[in-house]
Q: What sequence folds into this?
């Protein structure tokens, strides 16, 4: 029994299996005849969590032997300080090399019990202080003394980084730094080492009478990308000006000092490699890269970053190579050269270690880096967001930009981080450069490495087995995605579509197109030939995409028109680098685009001028998720930054086009309801007016040197009601008020010139739907002044106001300009549009006569009154007249009726009991349907249309937009429209003529 009790308290319980473990624990004071000392249990528990508990205990024992006098302090601190305990044991359980460093400098453990520096400046200050022979004003050490001091300081900082990296394995309450944080700190330390090495070289070589000479050190490779390993060569290029002999000696000395103290400095990436001059001038570099550089050199230069020496010279160098790097993809056989280079690296890898090579093997780090760099070089020419030297940042940008599928990018990031973490743990072991995964048979090394990466036993499997399984899974994933992105640029789902249909004879192809529903197959063949002509990469992608598109377009209302639109869009966007990539990689985008092009004549015209919206088609959340108010804020901010009225209006038009296309696409695809569409379109118009008004005011004020008046713009009609359609004008009133020191005449003249500028600048004809600012609802109509003061409006409405003007004011809403003035105008007109006591019988009869006259006079000759969305029976005007009459009659006593929204007013009427719920519902349904149909007509035909077509492709397209399927008879849509509006008209008749 005594032996069993003793066995349960053996060191093995804490993962300590070495025969020396108990003796070492006793020597430390942590073990007694009765087992572990209670105060030391926390240390033993920490040891049990180390990657190699025996190695960690052995390191502590060596520290005790190296500094017996200081051991009591360390032993006590380990029991009391969890931060020190986690960080120190994490290091000792993983790295024999750092244990050796601690033993050689026994007091260095104290730095793990306090906060550590993490920035480049902090590291540089620490290293520079270490190589000074005294205080901050003393000269730097040189020669071997400098190298020894730099080596000790560098190792101490490596120790701090490793302690932060490994501490969480021992104590999960310690912060866990991210992979990018660790690589960033290692890079910052390498930068500081180069700065210090160059400073030592300057101290050794530069004399007071030396000819002016500048030297810049350019980091390359992983150092340039801020993703350095614990142990790695640091690739550099030297650029010098002045005395190149001195610059070369400075570079050589820097390489010697840093190489002996910290890491090897490799300058083999310089022009002509090791055979070329170590230092070249800027002109020398430019001449070489323009004439002799090979493709791989531009690939390497992606990561060029100035780190030490003359900052201005370094900046000039990186700016110079930047323009060359991002045009390298235009070189002949560029993609083939990059692919061949990767194959060559694989070919030279020994077969016996190929499966264990973390860096160069199949499914290794280079697979990720080559694929990412190729995509960066191809697409980064036009997208600066991709121009990051960091692999992880570049993957993020590729995923965000859609150049790589989001899932693919996330998988590559996860796998790349896993391999880099394993690589770090392997290198920490002995601080040697290695990329070789352990043999599968080496279970001890696998177990230690697994524990060092944070893997714990699970599902009855040992840590080493889990690590090996993870390693193989990540390698297979990387290789699969590498081949997909690097060698097969077309997404598999698109590449698998057979292209034999395009290899038919002309007659066979025409027959197939005719069978698909193309009315003019010969014309369709011409479009296909134009898109696939030649042997360019663009043509080959089109050859793969077209079979998919032809089938998808065949399911739309107008396949011929859709294919013609696709050709026009493709030709207009052929220089847009991501256009075919999106179609190639995002299957959903192809499907949505085909429907839009085969349904709408408006969308293709907008798409060629706002192509970026195409990228939203594969993500419904992005297509519909933007808050119109957020867009309005963005537009106003953009317009404010423009230098003048013309530039402001151009910017506003561009943003309006983008938003118009986004809303139109979401509308056509059934992702937005009609009220959301109208609200979005109204928000766009409001933001455009606000931006144009601000720009016009600024321009006029700059011309005069003062602003005689403040101006407010009052939205009227559908703009005021936030019910605009795609073809609606902006009905407005302009109101002004003199600023202090100016008269009303000056104010009106100033405001009139501003209002005219707004109208003229926005009214310029363009290919987009027009931007007409209509002020005809102002007092006296077109014959009246364009702008009036607030008091002039007050006087006019008090004396001359007619009932139709009160009716028009029901939808008045302040939308732009001076908010206070606009609010006072609204307060002034409230008694007019919401008359006290409502309307008398005379004015009610006047409204009814006016409705009959307007609808009779304005209905187009020959139009079918049952299919006219605006003036027809049960159409928009029918419902609006009824609603507005009731608002005029009852809004004074029912505050809920004081709304500019037609559907909102109908809801309030029903809730107040002024309209039967059934009548309110039928009128709301008809109003929403007529609005939707009117919008759909604009989208389908590309121009404003108020008449529902009774037959033909336009009718079929409108039916699809309204939610009917391709198999449904479009006549069902016409019948449903007539049925809905007929019920609404009956309700209108009851409501409008009710006494």
A:
């Amino acid at each position: 029994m005594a032996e069993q009790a003793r066995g349960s308290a053996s060191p093995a319980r804490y993962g300590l299996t070495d025969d020396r473990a108990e003796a070492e624990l006793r020597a430390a004071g942590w073990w007694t005849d009765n087992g572990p000392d209670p105060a030391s249990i926390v240390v033993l528990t920490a040891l049990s969590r180390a990657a190699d508990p025996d190695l960690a205990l052995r390191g502590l024992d060596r520290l005790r032997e190296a500094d017996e006098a200081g051991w009591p302090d360390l032993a006590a601190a380990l029991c009391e300080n969890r931060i020190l305990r986690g960080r120190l044991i994490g290091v000792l359980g993983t790295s024999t090399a750092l244990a050796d460093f601690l033993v050689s400098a026994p007091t260095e453990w104290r730095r793990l019990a306090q906060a550590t520096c993490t920035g480049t400046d902090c590291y540089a200050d620490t290293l520079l202080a270490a190589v000074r022979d005294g205080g901050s004003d003393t000269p730097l050490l040189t020669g071997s003394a400098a190298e020894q001091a730099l080596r000790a300081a560098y190792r101490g900082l490596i120790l701090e980084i490793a302690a932060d990296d490994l501490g969480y394995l021992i104590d999960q309450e310690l912060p866990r730094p991210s992979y990018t944080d660790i690589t960033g700190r290692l890079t910052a330390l390498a930068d500081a080492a180069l700065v210090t090495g160059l400073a030592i070289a300057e101290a050794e070589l530069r004399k007071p009478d030396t000819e002016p000479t500048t030297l810049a050190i350019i980091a390359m490779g992983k150092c340039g990308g801020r993703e350095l390993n614990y142990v790695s060569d640091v690739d550099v290029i030297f650029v010098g000006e002045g005395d190149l002999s001195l610059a070369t000696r400075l570079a050589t000395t820097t390489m010697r000092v840093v190489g002996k103290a910290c890491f090897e400095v490799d300058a083999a990436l310089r022009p002509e490699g090791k055979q070329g001059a170590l230092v070249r001038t800027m002109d020398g570099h430019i001449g070489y890269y323009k004439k002799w550089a090979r493709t791989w050199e531009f690939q390497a230069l992606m990561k060029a970053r100035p780190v030490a020496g003359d900052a201005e010279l370094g900046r000039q160098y990186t700016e110079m190579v930047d323009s060359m790097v991002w045009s390298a993809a235009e070189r002949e056989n560029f993609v083939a050269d990059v692919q061949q280079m990767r194959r060559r690296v694989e070919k030279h890898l020994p077969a016996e270690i190929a499966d264990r090579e973390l860096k160069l093997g199949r499914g290794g780090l280079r697979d990720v880096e080559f694929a990412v760099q190729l995509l960066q070089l191809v697409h980064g020419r036009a997208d600066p967001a991709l121009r990051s030297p960091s692999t992880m940042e570049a993957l993020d940008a590729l995923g965000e930009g859609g150049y790589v599928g989001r899932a693919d990018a996330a998988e590559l990031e996860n796998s790349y981080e896993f391999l880099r973490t394993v690589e770090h743990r392997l290198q920490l072991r002995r601080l040697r450069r290695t990329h070789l995964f352990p043999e599968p048979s080496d279970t001890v090394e696998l177990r230690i490495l697994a524990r060092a990466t944070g893997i714990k036993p699970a599902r009855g499997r040992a840590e080493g087995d889990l690590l090996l399984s993870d390693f193989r899974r990540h390698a297979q994933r990387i290789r699969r995605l590498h081949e997909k992105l690097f060698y097969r640029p077309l997404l598999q789902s698109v590449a698998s579509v057979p292209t034999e249909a395009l290899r038919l004879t002309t007659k066979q192809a025409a027959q197939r197109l005719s069978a698909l529903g193309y009315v003019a197959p010969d014309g369709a063949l011409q479009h296909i030939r134009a898109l696939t002509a030649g042997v360019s990469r663009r043509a080959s992608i089109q050859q793969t995409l077209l079979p998919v598109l032809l089938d998808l377009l065949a399911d739309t209302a107008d396949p011929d028109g859709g294919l013609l639109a696709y050709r026009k869009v493709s030709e207009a966007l052929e220089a847009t680098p991501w256009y075919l990539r999106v179609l190639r990689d995002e299957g959903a985008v192809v499907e949505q685009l085909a429907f839009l092009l085969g349904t709408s004549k408006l969308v293709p015209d907008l798409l060629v001028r706002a192509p970026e919206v195409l990228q939203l088609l594969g993500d419904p959340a992005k297509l519909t998720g933007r808050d119109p108010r957020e867009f309005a804020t963005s537009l106003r901010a953009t317009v404010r930054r423009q230098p003048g009225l013309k530039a402001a209006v151009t910017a506003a038009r561009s943003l309006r086009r983008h938003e118009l296309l986004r809303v139109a696409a979401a509308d056509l695809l059934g992702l937005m309801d009609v009220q959301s569409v109208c609200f979005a379109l109204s928000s766009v118009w409001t933001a455009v007016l606000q931006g144009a008004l601000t720009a016009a005011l600024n321009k006029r004020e700059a011309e005069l040197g003062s602003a005689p008046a403040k101006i407010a713009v009052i939205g009227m009609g559908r703009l005021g009601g936030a019910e605009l359609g795609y073809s609606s004008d902006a009905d407005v009133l302009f109101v002004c008020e003199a600023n202090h020191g100016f008269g009303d005449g000056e104010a009106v003249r100033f405001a009139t010139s501003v209002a005219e500028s707004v109208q003229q600048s926005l009214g310029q004809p363009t290919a987009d739907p027009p931007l007409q600012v209509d002020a005809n609802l102002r007092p006296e109509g077109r014959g009246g002044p364009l702008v009036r003061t607030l008091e002039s409006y007050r006087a006019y409405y008090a004396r001359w106001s007619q009932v139709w003007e009160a009716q028009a004011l029901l939808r008045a809403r302040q939308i732009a300009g001076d908010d206070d003035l606009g609010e006072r105008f609204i307060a002034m007109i409230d008694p007019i549009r919401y008359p006290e006591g409502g309307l008398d019988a005379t004015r009610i009869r006047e409204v009814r006569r006016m409705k009959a006259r307007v609808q009779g006079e304005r209905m187009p000759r020959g139009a079918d009154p049952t299919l006219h969305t605006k003036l027809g029976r049960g159409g928009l005007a029918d419902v609006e007249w009824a609603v507005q009459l009731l608002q005029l009659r009852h809004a004074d006593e029912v505050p809920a009726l004081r709304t500019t929204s037609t559907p909102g007013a109908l809801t309030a009427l029903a809730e107040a009991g002024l309209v039967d719920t059934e009548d309110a519902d039928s009128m709301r349904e008809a109003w929403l349907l007529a609005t939707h149909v009117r919008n759909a007509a604009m989208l389908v035909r590309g121009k404003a249309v108020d008449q529902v077509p009774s037959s033909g492709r336009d009718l079929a397209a409108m039916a699809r937009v309204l939610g009917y399927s391709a198999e449904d008879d479009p006549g069902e849509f016409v019948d449903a429209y007539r049925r809905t509006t007929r019920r609404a008209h009956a309700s209108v008749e009851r409501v409008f003529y009710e006494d």
